[in-house]
Amino acid sequence: MIEITKKSIEKAINKARQTKPFVKILEFRRYSVTNKTTGATYEVKFSKLGNKKLAECNCKATVVCYHIGASIGAHIVLAEQMQTATA
Ligand SMILES: [Zn+2]
Predict the structure, then answer these.
(1) Pairwise CA distance, residues 9 & 4, whole Å
(2) Alpha carbon of 43 to ligand 1 centroid (Å)
(3) What is the rounded CA–CA span in Å between residue 24 and residue 11?
(4) Residue 34 Cα, ligand 1 centroid: separation in angstroms?
(5) For the chain, is the Cβ count within 10 Å smaller at the N or the C terminus?
(6) Spatial CB neighbours of 28, under 8 Å, sequence gap ≥ 6
(7) What are phi and psi of 69, to 5 degrees?
(8) Residue in 5, 61, 9, 53 with CA at minimum distance from that of residue 35
(9) What are phi and psi of 75, to 5 degrees?
(10) What confidence tens digit (pLDDT) does each residue in 31-83 have?
């Protein structure tokens, strides 16, 4: 698990905007991200530890990669919907 910081996620989102991978929701907090050019698919998971936001991707990167950047948009929308639903 890698901690998501504002700086690291901004970089990842920018890279995702250039790469434009295909994001599929597997379940809440689990996403599959496919690179449309290479067809490579990776799985991204999000979790929370106190106030820390954590993410994990099964690609080779050891930093907040663009797979995480690509799926966090969908994750934020979904998390907000969940909160509204339970409130
Ligand atoms: Zn990745």
Answers:
(1) 6
(2) 8
(3) 21
(4) 10
(5) C
(6) 78, 79, 82
(7) -60, -40
(8) 61
(9) -65, -45
(10) 999 999 999 999 999 999 999 999 999 999 999 999 999 999 889 888 888 88
Structure tokens at 59: 């690609």
Q: What is the pLDDT of residues 2-25, one digit of tens each?
A: 999 999 999 999 999 999 999 999
Q: What are the two backbone dihedrals, phi and then psi, of residue 6, each rounded to the nearest 5 degrees?
A: -55, -45
State if pTM tops 0.85: yes
Ligand 1 centre and the CA of 65: distance in Å? Answer: 5
Q: In 3-state terms, what secondary structure has residue 82?
A: helix
87 Cα: distance to centroid of ligand 1 (angstroms): 32
